[in-house]
Structures are given as C-alpha cells and as structure tokens.
Amino acid sequence: MTTNSNDFELREAPETQLSILGKIWQDRMGRIGLLMTVSVFTISIIGPMIWPFDPAAVGADASSILQPPNSQNWLGTDELGRDVFSQFLQGSRVSLLVGVTATIIATVIGAGIGISSGYFMGRLDTVLMAITDFFLVVPSLPLMIAMGSIFGQNLTVIILIIGVLSWPRNARIIRSQTLSLRERKFVPRAKSLGATDLRIIRKHMIPHVLPLVVANTILVVAGAILAEATLAFIGLGDPDRISWGSMLHFAFASGAIGRGAWWYFMPPGLGILAIVLAFTLLGHSFDRINNPRLRDAA
C-alpha cells in the first residue's frame, strides 16, 4: 500500500479555527479589543465622507484660532484655525496606514528569517540569529530617529524604517516554534516521500506557525502606530500628512496645554491610546485562544 504525502499534511495540520472571531468574541478582553479596533477602522474609512471641513483649511481670521468646541467645529480649532475634528479623522487614516503597512513589512521579514533559521539551522541559523540579536540589542527608537534624520521625513520612508526595525522579536519567536516543529515525525516522513524543503515549509511549517504569526502581528501593529506617533511628536513625521502624532506635536509646539486648549491635544492622545490598547487586547486574546497553557492559566 502506498502512502501519499498529503496524508501527513492532513494528519499533522494544526487544528482549524472554524470561528476565530467567535472565540475572540467569547473572550472579554478580546471582545473589547475587537470592538475598539472595528470602531477605529470604521472612523478612518468613513472619515472623508463625514468631516465637515478640509483638514488642512486654515481659518479665515484670527478669531477662528484655538476656538473651543462649538456647533460648527465639534472639537474646536487649532492654532491656525483648522478644524480639529476633521484633522482627527484624517489622522486616524494616516496612523492606521503606517501601523498596518509597517507591520506587513515586519511580519514578512520576521517570518522569513525565523522559519529559514529554525528549519535549515547550521551556519545560516548562526548568521541570521546574529543579525537578529544585533537589532534586538540596539534600542529601536534612537535608531529610528537617526534613520529618519538621514533618509528624510517622508511617509514611505517612515513606514519602511518602522517595518525594517520591528521584525526581530517575531523572528526569534517563530524560529523557536520552527525548531520544535522540525523535530516532529512528519518532517522526516515527508522527506522520505520525496518532499522538498520548500514544500515542507509551505505545507507544514507555515500552517503550524501561522497562529503564532497572527498573534504577534496584531501586537506589532500597536507598536508600529506608537512608533509613528513618537517620531511625529518629536518632529520627524511627514510634514505634509496629518497623523495623531503630528497633531500632538503641533499642539505642544503651539502651547495648547498652557493656554488650556484641551480639545486640541486630548483627541489625538486618546486616539493613540485607544488603538494601541485595542490591538494589544486583540493580540493577547488571539494568543490565549491558540496557546492552551495561557488559556488554562486564564
């Protein structure tokens, strides 16, 4: 009787999540994180349809500067008379764009290095882990600041900088999982049936590490958004794009706190707090669902 390699793929495949959203919804922290995440994404999507003014439109005269919330400007105006509510909606789009895109870059790099290092081992593992350890040891924020100063304050550059510097932790975690999977019986069995390394990685390794990748990816989004906000707050954001971080930068630079203009700095600050908390709760919930030890401890 012959045995097809697909038998091992089906037998050794990780448990299918029939309703991952349903399981997250049953988890209290996951439910809160999911609702908050959906809310922020909804705001960013419908923003252009509901903002009352052009976010970059300057006030007509001095009387429109730093006006408190009113019937026309729901969140007041900034030091140039621009509508804060419109800027808040626009800022959510830029912050999410940076966070999600940078995370995709970091995930591709981290997963590729982690799986390659853990599966092939040997000299390749030594070299890749040496590179990973270097980026883990070097503080990422000073490196981001230095690279931002060198390569410019362009949104694309900022996304690339954050993405390229956010992968090491993912690579380490995925490598550990891959090393464990490599010792399981299905790997030598698949090789004995003629499966190539690429096929084993594609059909066996990736499906098994995918839940771990997703959980850590969700957490990386929160870190990427916070990194962009930090860079923008210290003046290294894209000057042509409005983000929550740049709103905080200009609010502090204009002395909004000293002048009591709470409506200027509180919305972007709370927005950053909400989205970072949302992705953090969502990531930990997903991790608990896919990690029996964490689930039992909870």
UniProtKB/TrEMBL annotation:
It holds the Pfam family BPD_transp_1. This is Unannotated protein. Keywords: Cell membrane, Membrane, Transmembrane, Transmembrane helix, Transport. It is a multi-pass membrane protein. It comes from freshwater metagenome. It is found in: Cell membrane. PROSITE patterns: ABC_TM1. Its main location: membrane. The keyword Membrane applies. GO terms for biological process: transmembrane transport. The chain crosses the membrane at residues 32-51, 94-115, 127-145, 151-168, 209-234, 261-283. One of its GO terms (cellular component) is plasma membrane. Residues 92-283 form the ABC transmembrane type-1 domain.
